[in-house]
Amino acid sequence: MPTVRFDPTLSRSAALKQMTEALAAQGILGNDARFLVLDLLGLSTTELILHGDRPLGTPDASRLEAGLARRISGEPVARIVGAWEFWGLPFGLCAETLVPRADTETLVEVALAAQADRRRPLRVLDLGTGSGCILVALLSELPNAFGIGLDRAHAALVQARTNADRNGVGRRAAFVQADWTAGLDGAFDLVVSNPPYIASPAIPGLAVEVRCHDPLAALDGGTDGLDAYRHILRNLTLGPTRLAPGGTLAFEIGYDQAEAVQRLGLEAGFGPGRVTRDLAGHARVVCFRPD
Ligand code: GLN
C-alpha cells in the first residue's frame, strides 16, 4: 500500500479533497473522509468552512497521514475517532463495545412505539448494553423511565456510564456487570437486547472492519447464532428477572433469524413475535407483547 503524504502547505479544504480521493481510490466512499478530517484536525464543520483556506502545518499533516493509513488498513472511522453517533446522540467507544449501528435504531423505534404512554415511570432493562446506546436513546425519549444496562464486560459498563452521563440521562441509569439477567431481581416494563447473533462459523467471513475491530464477544452468537436469545428467554421465564404484565420484549436479530427467534419466543411462552424490517428491508427486530 503506497503511503499517501499530505503537504503541510496544503489548505485544510484541499486536504479534505485529497483525503476523499485517497479513500475513494481504495473503494471507501461516503462520509468517512469528512469525519476523519474533522476529528483529526479537531474542527467543527463550521470551523472547516470558515477556516478552510488555512494551511495544514506539519503536525496536522502527520495526523492525517496516520489516520488515512489506519482507515485504509480496514479500521472503521468510528474506531479511529473513538466515538459514533446513534439516535442523534454522541457515544464514546472502547475496545469492548460494538460500534453502534444505524440498523439498531429500528429496535429503539419499535420499543418506543410499543409504549402507549411515554411519560409513565417505565422500568427498562437492556441486556448486553455495550456502549449503552440503546438504553441511553430510550431514556432520552422516556422522560420518567429508569433503566438498567447489563453487560459482561466491565470496560463496556464504564463506557456506558460515561455515555449516559454525557447525554443527560445518567441519574436514571444503572449499569451492572452480569451474564445476561443473572441474579437481577425484579419486573421490567421494557426489556431490550441487541445480543451477539452471528453464527460462529460465519465470523471468518465478516468484513475486516467488523471481524478485526468489533469485540468478538459482541458478535459471536454460538453455533447457530441463537445462543443469546435462548439464554435471555430462559432467564426471563425462570426468574428472578421478569417481564412485567403488559410489558414489551424486543430483540434485534440477524436478517435471517426472524422465524427462529419467533419460534423460540413462542416456545418460551411469550406469544407470537412481531417482525419489523430495517431501512434496508431486512427483518431486524422481533417484538413480543405477551398480554
Ligand atoms: N447493545 C449494544 C449495541 O447495540 C451492544 C450490542 C452487542 O455488543 N451485541 O450497540
TrEMBL record:
PANTHER family: HEMK METHYLTRANSFERASE, MTRF1L RELEASE FACTOR GLUTAMINE METHYLTRANSFERASE
Domain Methyltransferase: 122-195
InterPro entries recorded: DNA_methylase_N6_adenine_CS, HemK-like, Methyltranfer_dom, N5-glutamine_MTase, PrmC_N, RF_methyltr_PrmC, SAM-dependent_MTases_sf
Keyword S-adenosyl-L-methionine: yes
The family this protein is said to belong to: Belongs to the protein N5-glutamine methyltransferase family. PrmC subfamily.
Chain sites annotated for binding S-adenosyl-L-methionine: G128, T129, G130, S131, G132, D151, W180, N194
Protein name as annotated: Release factor glutamine methyltransferase
Enzyme class: transferase
Species lineage: Bacteria, Pseudomonadati, Pseudomonadota, Alphaproteobacteria, Hyphomicrobiales
